[in-house]
Amino acid sequence: MNRLEEEMQELGVEVNTKRMKNLQGQAQKPQLGKKIKVGRSPSLSASRPAPRDELAIPNKETRAKAAKLRVNAMKRLRREARKGEADRHVYDLKPKHLFSGKRKMGKTDRR
């Protein structure tokens, strides 16, 4: 801490000891002998997980066979003009509490 104060005074900077108190604890800590890891971080593509359909089937031959079966199944659906995977739709449920009791005329026009 004294060396820092001396160097700062040589440079012409006034050192206030109250402001420098937080540096005292850091200056007294010994440096650890650990190595600093320096190197290239893994690229983004290497750190991304594999697609789930590839993780499910371990070897390439079985994966290719499953892909072929999937294509053939979709061919049948296309030929018969049925709904495919992309045509599935989840219909939104209307909130009943907002629509009930709102008839226009007669006895049932209010709750």
Number of beta-strand segments: 0
- Overall structural class, as computed from helix and strand content, comes to mainly alpha
User: Could you report the average pLDDT, rounded to the nearest whole number?
Assistant: 77
Tell me the strand percentage band.
under 5%
Q: How many helices?
A: 6
Q: Which residue ranges are poorly predicted, with pLDDT under 50 across at least 5 consecutive positions?
A: none
Distance between the termini: 80 Å
The SSE order reads HHHHHH
The biggest beta sheet reads:
none
Q: How much helical structure, as a percent, in the residues? A: 40-55%
Radius of gyration: 36 Å
Backbone shape: flat
Structure description:
Residues 96-105 have a biased composition (Basic residues). Residues 50-61, 82-95 have a biased composition (Basic and acidic residues). It is built from six helices and no strands. By secondary structure, it is mainly α. It has a domain at 49-79. The relative contact order is 0.05.
Q: What's the short version?
A:
By secondary structure, the chain is mostly helical.
What is this structure's SSE topology?
Elements: H1 2-11, H2 21-28, H3 44-47, H4 52-56, H5 60-79, H6 96-99
Defining key terms:
mainly alpha, 6 helices
